[in-house]
Amino acid sequence: MIRPGSEAELAEAIRDADAPLSLRGGGTRGPLPEGTAITTSGLTGIVLHDPAALTLVVRAGTPVDEIDAALAGANQCLAFEPMDHRALLGSTGTPTIGGVVAANVSGPRRVLVGAARDHLLGLRFVDGEGSVIKNGGRVMKNVTGYDLARLLAGSRGALGAITEVALKVLPGTETCANLVAHGLDDAAAVRAMSAALGTPYEVTGAAHDPHAAEGPRTVLRIEGFAPSVAYRSRALVEALRPHGTWQIEDDREAVRAEWRGIRDVAPFHGTTGNVWRVSVRPSEAADLAARAGADQVFYDWGGGLVWLRLPEGCDLRARLGRYDGHATLVRAAPETHAALHRLQPEPPALQALSRGLREKFDPRGILAA
Amino acid sequence: MQMPSPDARIMAKKAQVVARLAQVLGDRGVIHDPAETRAYECDALTAYRCPPLCVVLPATTEEVAAALKVCHEENVPVVPRGSGTSLAGGALPTADSVILGVSRMNRVLETDTADRIIRVQTGRTNLSVTGAVEELGFFYAPDPSSQLACAIAGNIAMNSGGAHCLKYGVTTNNLLGVTMVQMDGTVVEIGGAHMDAGGLDLLGVICGSEGQLGVVTEATLRILPKPEGALPVMLGYDSAEAAGACVADIIEAGVLPVAIEYMDRPCIRACEAFAKAGYPDCEALLIVEVEGSADEINYQLETILKIARDHDPVEIRAAQDADEAARIWLGRKSAFGAMGQINDYMCLDGTIPVSALPEVLKRIGELSDDYGLGVANVFHAGDGNMHPLILFDANKEGDLEKCEAMGADVLRLCVEVGGCLTGEHGVGVEKRDLMSVQFDPVDLEAQMKVKDVFDPKWLLNPAKVFPLDVSEGRRA
Q1: Which residues in A lie closer than 8 A to residue B353 (C-beta atoms)?
Q2: CB B79 within 8 A of CB B91
Q3: Looking at residue A98, which CATH number applies to its domain?
């Protein structure tokens, strides 16, 4: 494993490579490409934390835990709540912030505050030719030149190796509460979550587990200052009367633990089979899940994100047909990954653009993402 | 500011180009009489003007594709145009270019409050998007000052912001999908009513690409439920340092106002004379707005006022009702108009780290003395996006050039302290030649590679964003 200790070393390693590289941060997020292993985990450290500017600049290999701890010290957080994939995938290692950005990993709060890419202010990366490129910056509003930062976010290393990121951070939340309904079917649960997200009460999480131990459980999260959380919880219970009976659960630690579980798709932990992650227009979610014929279903983002568990090798995309969204194969045996591909195939015109970009940023095909 | 000299071959075949465009768009869709094309000679950066070869106003995505295909075949540059409100010259034509305006395409295609989206044709104005969902209790968050006139097409091209970005983000954070026509006429659908890209985030790089990658004809936008209420508080200070420290403390306290606006004394005085908002005569005025229910607003305002008092304010005024709120905002919202009444001005748009505020204001003051030009500062303090207005006299020989030189120095200063050239207006032609201050050649090369992929012939808005000498080998 090549483990450069600096951006310059990483650039040199990429420049010198004459065969595909298998790029990773902590390597915790699923199948890694073929090739010589190279990691950014040696590029560590917080370069700048400016709490008054809500800004964090950090090297790509910095562990997410370390960042969470540093931010917590200033009562701030990564508001997009990046998921930890280890329990779902049975992977080991240390998740890095570079991996989070490279895979655009977001958690339940994405539905309100946006994804990892929405909190990215700028970055530095090494392209497939070993050039060190910077884009964006460390300020909240910046439209100077093309937004390569967002193009790199979620690119899974296909266009370059991210070496440093600047992120917008947000105040931590003082307290939180859940609103819970039991027994809703999937379609009713999605309708209720949409209704909740359409209120001004700033729901920061909306998930539905049809297979919960005590029957289907729909849960909505409210966060903020204590008096505000209390007020909004009550107001939301009223607003959701047409959608069933809702109970308020306000044990802060229990609420936080439940949302960590939702973030990491805890209902699927310890299971077997393929795990698919489908981004879909929420109103199509319940129908889509029904079409999937999955062994297990779990909804986050108010129905905008559907987790599905299917038997090994099952081609979910063929079952789903056309819909407004895309399906990613998250957990599978290597041969299934090889056969079905991790990412949803794009229509030809988009494929041409994506391929064109890869050829420009990595003309030698070194970055085997 | 230089623009490439027009291509004589294109000028010579104007009649042929116009005829081919009229063939696909009908006579109504093509404007070529010089008396009429003059209306398109500039955008809101009026210092630079040049009538285009002709103007096309397609009515559908198919017509946009057909028009672009003709221009692609004829090797004619195309300058896309929304409402022409760019302050950066983003829609400035060259004499050999075709202006492609989307103003006839302004329909709402779909509204869905359950999925919290609206799909519109991009000629629609920013404010009328909110207008279409307001009665349903929703709004479209990005709110550039020009929102009454500016088109969603331009918002996407420039990744427009507004006063409320601190909480709601800018255009790229509220854009879910587009229908886009590439220069060769290929129509692509990117994103949709779902969240995040399945592969490369093409939407992310299209937004803010200043009309250089394609013409966006339809957009799916995130709409948000309207907050229960919002109230501003006005805080007056006798120094930029005190106001800056107050902003920092508010943010560090964990309160996230939806807007924090800053005005300095020259701006306060002009606004007060113009709008009679009852502003105090002080060095720095902050308007801080919070949202929520009445109780939530009070709770947040209490926290803010407690912090504000620690910094020795000369005035504190919290709005008690909508009328008072409107009065507090009135002055700020009329700032550009108020300044325009007393002077010609150039509006800058750099962003700085909030912590650098006092230093930057001090150095802008020094530059103002050096150049002998007045400056009024008004900006979004929460996100560091500054709008220094440099005052000059357009009728005075050499004053515009002096003003531009000073503007460039201010923007260099923004970059030097860790900020950027433009926070929300875009590069266009205005900041084009300063790009090398912020970016190394390799950074610009990487950006231009993206254009190579989307528009290999470099026909879409080619003379913008990248310094002409940097893009020379690529442009036709």
Answers
A1: 50, 53, 55, 138-139
A2: yes
A3: 3.30.465.10
